[in-house]
Specification:
By secondary structure, the chain is of the alpha+beta class. Helix content is 31%, strand content 28%.
Amino acid sequence: MPNQPAPNLLSWASEIDEGAITQAARTARLPFVAGHVALMPDAHVGIGATVGSVIPTEGAIIPAAVGVDIGCGMVATETTLTAADLPDSLDALMPLVERRIPAGVGKGHDDPAVDRTLGDLGLPRTSLTPKQERTVALQFGTLGSGNHFVEVCLDERDRVWTVLHSGSRGIGNQLATRHIADARKAMQRQAISLEDPDLAYFTQSTPEFTTYIEDMLWAQRYAMASRARMDRVLSDALFRVTGMGARVRTVNCHHNFTQLEAHGGKELWITRKGAIKAATGDEGVIPGSMGTRSYIVRGLGNPDSYHSCSHGAGRRMSRSRAKRELSAGSLTEAMRGRTWNADRAAALVDEHPEAYKPIDQVMADQRDLVEVRHTLSQVFNYKG
């Protein structure tokens, strides 16, 4: 159940940094916030708005609250495979994934099949440069970096799932960064002073608002389609290694987005920054950190959370702190028994499980937001 750590703020987090509460309270004080700000169990400090927050607004949108990885999210596919169908080692899968799902900052690939998909997506409202148009094509169906990943997991029935985390790549970042800067300029023109300049906003019915919404919705479509393509590539690679298998069903959901929804008899913009839509019956994917469990969930439609839930475990250490205090050796121990990028352990210390909140506690904190349908344990992890 939630508690109220500050006015106009509800929190489901049993573990939360005071800085995150202070930051979320600043957002909650904005005059166009139409109700309380909801903090999910994985909430932690972000840029402008708190990661793991759900913000209801009326007549305005905060670009930084959506963030720079517009449409980032998860996709998970249940397969017909069981644990007995997997080889003793999934080492053969790693080079296939590395080749077919490029990962890393700015990485892309030439894929002639991409053009048709991109044609169906259309274009953002903001005109793209020729270089940006090339980036859109080259990075479609690629993973990115940071906490983006590919996994193969077993559920409680020993059924095999594929799981993937990615967003709108370079073009989403570029569009978001431009709009965040434009929102700041709009505040300056209107002589509006904010507690945090990153809470700069666009007012509805202005040209800037319309452009941002159209660009954001396009980036969300791009991210979802890109995940869907990688998901198919991943399952095809897995089936090549096992020599059998078929897809059963797929869950594909955003966790950095905004959309117009009805709540409390009003049409509101619900911005979920690191949160999943969890209306009654909605399926979602909530990943833990490396070496821990992930969950397939079904929403309970809790109105206090604006029909939302957490998007993952949530960081308890900054990346720089994790690199200072944690080690490649302890990460290797945490990943024992799994196929993963072990040769990159030193570079992945900032993704150490101990840098994140315990996912089991996060799930316990949101018992009134979602029900767990399946619990997934990793057997293969490939990090961006």
